[in-house]
Amino acid sequence: MRSDRSVTERILNVLRPYASNWSGTLGRGDLVIPQREIPRVIHEILDALHEDAATRKEAGDRELFDVLMAARRSASVQDQADLLRRHFIILLR
Question: Domain residues for 74?
Answer without folding.
Answer: 59-93
